[in-house]
């Protein structure tokens, strides 16, 4: 993850717990499972800080609602595909300079809390 430079802000959405169809086994195709999503994005916050104006800030609520809608309304065979689609969705906002998306598939392995994949992109 790139370091913060003056004027840049790092926003983190932590532990967004959603349910979706994820996997390739029959039971996974037929039943929704919990996933845990963490989003990190960097944007230039200079104008938002200076003006104290929401119109100059990155609206993390709008991005999070789009993530929720995408996860809940689609099916995914692979964790990699879900993670990439969410990264593409976040990077679709032109204000985002860098994004990182981590998705945990809870209880995917017998003795593990979860299995996760993290993907990142920057302009």
UniProtKB/TrEMBL annotation:
It catalyses: 7,8-dihydroneopterin 3'-triphosphate = 7,8-dihydromonapterin 3'-triphosphate. Keywords: Isomerase. It is an enzyme of class 5 (isomerase). GO terms for molecular function: dihydroneopterin aldolase activity; dihydroneopterin triphosphate 2'-epimerase activity. One of its GO terms (cellular component) is cytosol. Residues 11-121 form the Dihydroneopterin aldolase/epimerase domain. It comes from the Bacteria. GO terms for biological process: folic acid-containing compound metabolic process; pteridine-containing compound biosynthetic process. Its EC number is 5.1.99.7. NCBIfam families: folB_dom, PRK11245.1. PANTHER family: DIHYDRONEOPTERIN ALDOLASE 1-RELATED, DIHYDRONEOPTERIN TRIPHOSPHATE 2'-EPIMERASE. Belongs to the DHNA family. This is Dihydroneopterin triphosphate 2'-epimerase. It comes from Aquipseudomonas ullengensis. The gene is folX.
């Amino acid at each position: 993850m790139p370091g913060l430079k003056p004027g840049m802000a790092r926003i983190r959405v932590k532990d967004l717990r959603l349910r979706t169809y994820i996997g390739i086994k029959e039971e996974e195709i037929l039943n929704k499972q919990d996933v845990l999503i963490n989003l990190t994005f960097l944007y230039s916050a200079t104008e938002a800080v200076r003006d104290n104006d929401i119109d100059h800030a990155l609206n993390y609520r709008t991005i999070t609602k789009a993530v929720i809608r995408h996860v809940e309304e689609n099916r995914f065979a692979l964790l990699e595909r879900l993670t990439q689609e969410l990264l593409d969705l976040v990077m679709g906002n032109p204000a985002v300079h860098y994004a990182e998306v981590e998705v945990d598939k809870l209880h995917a392995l017998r003795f593990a809390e979860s299995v996760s994949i993290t993907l990142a992109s920057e302009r």
